[in-house]
TrEMBL record, chain A:
The keyword Magnesium does not apply. Signal peptide: none annotated. InterPro entries: Permease_MalE (IPR030802). The lineage of its organism: Bacteria, Bacillati, Actinomycetota, Actinomycetes, Pseudonocardiales. Keywords: Membrane, Transmembrane, Transmembrane helix. This is ABC transporter permease. The chain crosses the membrane at residues 44-68, 144-169, 194-214, 234-255.
From TrEMBL, chain B:
Keywords: ATP-binding, Nucleotide-binding, Transport. This is ABC transporter ATP-binding protein. It comes from Actinophytocola gossypii. It comes from the Bacteria. One of its GO terms (molecular function) is ATP binding. Residues 5-241 form the ABC transporter domain. InterPro entries: AAA+_ATPase (IPR003593), ABC_transporter-like_ATP-bd (IPR003439), ABC_transporter-like_CS (IPR017871), P-loop_NTPase (IPR027417). Pfam families: ABC_tran.
Length: 261, 326
């Protein structure tokens, strides 16, 4: 449905606009009754089931890598006692929400996009609209909310597993002191770190859900179009995630003073 | 009684590609109309515009004095409840069995109890001859069954306007005949306005009260069935005969040169199909089609404006029905 191009890049701009419009529609329809509770529970369960195990498995080596890296770094500058503090900060603030979002987008979002895409080309979405049911409210809102909810919970899980992995590798492999690792947790980290972690996870979940839904509702022609749409939805989500992460982190650093400063 | 759908000066294009323009027609309330056209002339696009899934670039679509092209989304969702649409492949929800598919509109739009829903659903499933297949998933049944299930779902909210996209695609001639009969029976029972989009000549010749044809990016004609069936318009004649001879080519319209060359080569029509076959009647036992009486009154009023061949055929059919009545 491309109208003639008035200036280069107009198509990209239009796509961006429509993505935003869908995001706003989702927010608007979230408060519209009736809420699709069964769809929500079903999707929540589905996204959790496909992303739970991979998230835990990714979290262990991620935590370990950060711990090992920091361990050797802190040893060189003689600050071993802060290893725990630094790795906890890195895992909770950065690694955990990003890992969570990557998995929600990669595992849950791609499945969601494929499902919606195949429904679109089979005219199911059209049929639903014709039956007087708003597909955004009926299908998209529960999915996006489920992605956000799972992201929040998964973020907690990834944080815990990541910290445990870091602890294990620091103590066992690098002969760190268990007491010092644990005691230093609160030396640098503070409660807002946990908040920003959860806020990031929820926002990333929203973005992953909306992008997957947008590409799913607007696939190219035929089965190949759906395949391309799934691929693009994952890539677009990843790009947006890292950009958003940068913005949120910058804001956080400006707004929340670091501990002891 | 069904609702009249008035389309005025409708135009639609995708990018630089114009699909059709200046389409003006009125689907008379409660009558069955067919929209014909070669593949790729935008028949399905026209259907999607009628239900507001696509936005036309120009023109108006008036239903109950509301312009579908310019009304708010909220009004559009309200008006859509008047419609029952049968998509080409049925467009059933793949994750639900047939029963849940047919019950879906009731569960979304009414506060009926499950017992009431069950009785309505089994009635509609019976109407399309699908009793006993309620627990099947759309993936497990044949194309014809999917179509009929889609029809049952379209009927469940007692629509005033039924739009049917290619009822014959993927069906054998016998099943197509059954579907045609079913659509006509539905018209007798519900008195709903029906628009069938198809390129099946048999359906076009025997089912509708009115026929229109899209060709060369515009509506060639639209009117009582006799007008199109007796038309001498080359494209219409060629299409109704399913012949290679005429202005319709394999891909787009033929150019004049090819056509002249064909004629010069002495290509002639074999077994030319002409005339106006009798229209299908509802299955005996069903109520009379009210549309027949309304249409007769309407056609008689405009009789003097119709071409002579059509006029002749209408008068002949009147004579025979009157004789039959006596």
């Amino acid at each position: 449905m491309t109208v003639k191009q008035a200036f280069p890049g107009q198509a990209a701009l239009r796509q961006t606009g429509r993505l935003y419009a869908l995001g706003l529609d989702v927010i608007r329809c979230t408060f519209k009754r009736p809420f699709q509770f069964r769809e929500f529970i079903g999707q929540f369960w589905f996204i959790a089931s496909v992303s739970l195990l991979p998230a835990a498995l990714v979290a262990i080596p991620f935590g370990a890598v950060i711990a090992l890296h920091l361990g050797s770094l802190t040893e060189q500058i003689g600050a071993q006692s802060f290893t725990g503090a630094a790795s906890v900060l890195a895992i909770i603030q950065q690694a955990s929400p990003v890992v969570t979002a990557l998995l929600i987008a990669g595992a849950g979002g791609s499945a969601m996009c494929a499902d919606l895409g195949s429904r679109t080309i089979r005219e199911e979405i059209d049929a639903m609209e014709v039956l007087g049911v708003n597909p955004v409210q009926r299908l998209i809102v529960p999915r996006v909310l489920a992605a956000m909810g799972v992201a929040a919970f998964l973020n907690g899980l990834v944080s815990v597993v990541g910290v445990l992995g870091g602890y294990f590798f620091n103590v066992v492999m690098q002969n760190g002191t268990p007491g010092a690792y644990l005691a230093s947790f609160s030396a640098l980290a503070q409660l807002p770190d946990l908040w920003i972690s959860e806020i990031k996870a929820v926002i990333f979940g929203f973005v992953a859900g909306v992008v997957a839904a947008y590409r799913g509702l607007n696939p190219g022609r035929g089965p190949k179009g759906v395949g391309d749409a799934v691929n693009q939805s994952v890539v677009i989500t990843f790009l947006l995630l890292f950009l958003l992460n940068l913005i949120l982190t910058t804001l956080y650093v400006q707004v929340v003073p670091p501990k002891g400063a | 009684m069904g609702v009249e759908v008035a389309v005025e000066g409708l135009g639609k294009s995708f990018g630089r590609q114009r699909i059709w323009q200046d389409v003006t027609l009125t689907l008379p309330a409660g009558e069955v109309s067919v929209l014909l056209g070669p593949s790729g002339t935008g028949k399905s696009v026209f259907l999607k515009c009628l239900i507001g899934l696509l936005k036309p670039d120009a023109g108006r679509i008036l239903i109950n004095d509301t312009d579908l092209v310019r009304c708010s989304e909220h009004t559009l969702y309200g008006i859509r409840k008047l419609f029952g649409v049968l998509f080409q492949d049925g467009a059933l929800f793949g994750s639900m069995n047939l029963y849940d598919n047919v019950a879906f509109p009731l569960r979304e739009h009414t506060r009926k109890s499950e017992t009431e829903i069950r009785s309505i659903v089994s009635e509609k499933m019976g109407m399309v001859g699908l009793s006993g297949a309620e627990r099947k998933l759309p993936g497990e049944i044949s194309g014809g069954m999917r179509k009929r299930a889609g029809l049952a779902r379209a009927l469940v909210l007692d629509p005033q306007i039924i739009l049917v996209d290619e009822p014959d695609s993927g069906l054998d001639p016998v099943r197509t005949a059954y579907i045609s009969q079913l659509l006509l029976d539905l018209n007798a029972q519900l008195d709903a306005t029906i628009l069938i989009v198809t390129h099946n000549i048999n359906v076009a010749r025997t089912v509708p009260d009115n026929i229109g044809m899209l060709f060369r990016r515009e509506l060639v004609m639209f009117g009582p069935r006799e007008v199109l069936l007796t038309s001498e318009e080359p494209a219409v004649k060629q299409f109704l005969n399913g012949s290679r001879i005429g202005p319709i080519g394999m891909s787009e319209e033929k150019d004049e040169a090819t056509m002249a060359a064909e004629l010069a080569a002495g290509a002639t029509m074999v077994d030319e199909i002409r005339g106006v076959p009798p229209q299908l009647e509802p299955t005996p036992g069903l109520p009379d089609r009210q549309a027949v009486h309304r249409r007769r009154a309407r056609v008689m009023r405009i009789l003097h404006t119709l071409p002579p061949a059509a006029r002749h055929s209408i008068l002949a059919s009147l004579d025979s029905t009157d004789r039959f009545a006596r």
